[in-house]
Fold these 2 entries.
Entry 1:
Amino acid sequence: MGFCDDVKAAAEQIAAAQEVTIISHIDADGIACEAILSQAVSRLEIPVKSVFVRQLEPLTMPQVPADSSLKVFADLGAGQQNLMRDRGFTDKEILIIDHHVSQPVEGCQYTQVNCLPYGFTRMSAAGVSYLVSKELDSANTDLAMLAVIGNVGDMMAREKCGLVGPARDIIVEDGARHGSVEVRKKDLNCYGTSTRPLHLSLAYNDDPFIKGITNNPEGARQFLKRLGIRQQAPDGRWYVWEEIPVEDKRTVISALAEQLMANGEKLDRLLAETYGFPLETPRTPLRNAQEYATVLNACGRWSKPQVGGAILRGDRGQAYRDAEHMLTNHRSIIRDLLQFIIDTGVKELENLQWLHVGGRYPDTIVGIGAGMALSKLNSSKPILIMCEVPEDRNLTKVSMRTNERVVEKGIDLQQALASASAEYGGGGGGHKIAAGAYIPKTAEQEFVERVNRILGEQFAAACPGHR
Ligand SMILES: [Mn+2]
């Protein structure tokens, strides 16, 4: 059996269902999964309902209905098959569409389509959902765009500066052929290209870190001025990257390259393949995959994943207005958190820097704040932030972030947090560059020291000379 056979088996199981319930995650990837699968299912005229969960655990399991529908778990489930078994679900009732590490359980053979065991490590669950939907009906290629958003939202394009493998060769290609995805091969590797004034887009970018520009809006503005780039429209509005002429883009990119070289930095992170959405309104966050994913994440983190789903289905009225509010709120709280981190300061250990923010900020945004604070702190050390969990006073949520340079030196935050949290009876996961965990509150101090030691071992293993 290959991956394609698994995709076929999943499609067959859906096509044979009388009724479907989709259980998905509240992040951009999970929201995209739900929108892809529920549209593909309803196009077959099979009744479909959706349930979103923050994570699949004993507490959230009762949200999954015990009816006769086929339960399709998307972007979660592979690692929680024990919960399905404990709930009494039979093999026939369950389909798992995931890209996380699978943990089979005894006595059950749930159908699962998962790209990970086949070595496709850079495809998200929205990608797998799309392949299943395309198998259901080859006319579903309008959904490829949604899969691109889910993949980019799950950072699948980050390490290689673009999507790779089947996510690139099948999904991006389908989207481009359909006309809803525009592939920009050597674009600037920068966030906010559809909505942020040019100089802010450059200043807020820290991958790559460019001296004089990163974290320096005025420096970025002067840099563009020296290049003779027109930054404002006659009415005073600031131009964004996506609308400036292609010659200006070339001028900016080569000047940034010179700046990096002058500082002895590598150029490998300057350019990326990016994905634009030409059918969306110009200068809105729906115009490119990264910013679109932020809109979905904002909806999920403020407990309105259905609003994100409505936008993916084409609602540009009330749902879009609600999402804009959430996005504004999302950004202002993150800015506030960022300032709190900078003002309070972090404690430095040998291999990490850390801070406990208590119960001041929602646990769903602490990781994002940590990532943004990193470039303003010592970015050669991963950052670890702890916060309270509102639903459970005995638990602490841990978020860690680092950057590509540190990952290249052998750091794997997913591995560090998963193994350290397991030692204290908690759990964790994520990616090399960004990971999270839940631990008992009583273990906080010891845990930080344990992670510090694991990171030291990772540095040492990758580079025996490192101390
Ligand atoms: Mn995912």
Note: The chain has 16 helices and 13 strands.
Entry 2:
Amino acid sequence: MSIEFFTRLPLHGETFHLPGDPRNRGDWNNPSRPGTGAVSNFAVGDDFTYIDYLSQIARGAEIAGFDGVLMVNTQFGEEPWIVSSLLARETKRLKFVAAFHPSSTSPWNAAQAAATYQRATGGRLVWNIIQGSSEAAQRAIGDELPHDERYERAGEFVHAVRGYFGSESFTYRGKYYSASGGGLRGPLRKAPIPRICTAGASDAAKEFAAQHADYYLLLAEDPAIVAEHIRDVRERALKYGRSDIQFGLSVDVIARATDAEARAEAKRIFDEGVAAGVVDVVASITEQLSPTFQKRRKLYHDKEVRDYDDLFIAPNLWSGYGYIGIPPGFALVGDYAAIVERIREFQALGISLFFIAGYPHLEEAYRIGEHILPHFRSERVGARVPANDDAAAGDGFERPLAFASGLDTKQRHSGANG
Ligand SMILES: Cc1cc2nc3c(=O)[nH]c(=O)nc-3n(C[C@H](O)[C@H](O)[C@H](O)COP(=O)(O)O)c2cc1C
């Protein structure tokens, strides 16, 4: 099975320290305290702003060999489609996963905007269709539909978007949307529809994914629970005649040369939470998605969990971020070999798309790119994976003699991969 690796663009600031700490890059902190730069002052041209920092991460990610970046959509964060557009021409091949609510646009507007983006970038847009983490959050952005109906509407939304991409004369009468003879025309017809991802543990979310999504996304948690979600969504998809639905997994990574160094980093951030008295500030996403997390949280209340290392829920899988308000909440913590092994285990369960990131995102994109991604080189499709064996690939470039001499093609090849 092929495998893809995306990392994340932090659209609401870095969290190398606790959220709100002014030492974090970005300006998601108390405005009365000095920040560290990468702050948006609305003064274009005389300063570096947060988008410049995001641009560095995006470029770093693609240099490090990532296929794409995930952008989470929250009320207090930058808007993902806009960021995708701003950064598309600062990058060459990186894909951008833009999360959005169907309620924020119309199927036609989404189809046309996506077609323009796809044409301009060579098809680098991926959609993550979201429904909101709570009723209150949805009402705050003007969406009054109850939970399950939001998924019903999302189903119609995707149906209509596929209709516009697939036909110049799409006609449809639904409960939420309609179209009479619409569709992408002229050169826009050449654009590929974005890959469609979605997430959510509710029945409505899974049914929506089963019927309409290319990828169902999960948080890393107890592998047995991940396996059960995959089985469930696969079975539901088969009901709709779909055997090709794929699975993505989001998990933070604290990877270091030794296990002790990785654990020290987990302890560092957890201790910041203890010192600030914020332990147990839990990201709602983590709570909603994870039965394991809810169980562990109860243990925390019952005082059975006290230190950072009580929060491993499976080998190398640490839930500590979830206790100090840093979503998605779970991280793989360990030496490089252990992280590769854990990724392989999730891959064996059926995951083919990994979203892995660390803090700060820029430095950790390079670290993961250098120490983790090379282990998966032969299974990566479509990615320009950094390698030093291009000479063997017959790419037409002339090599300096010193490099080319003394080794035949086969020797050079096996040396680079070994
Ligand atoms: C990898 C991943 C990325 C997500 N990204 C977002 C996001 O950007 N914005 C958001 O509001 N919810 C996001 N979610 C949450 C889900 O889309 C969904 O709204 C949530 O899980 C609640 O679904 P449910 O109530 O139907 O179970 C994400 C979930 C996962 C697993």
Note: The longest helix spans residues 147-166.
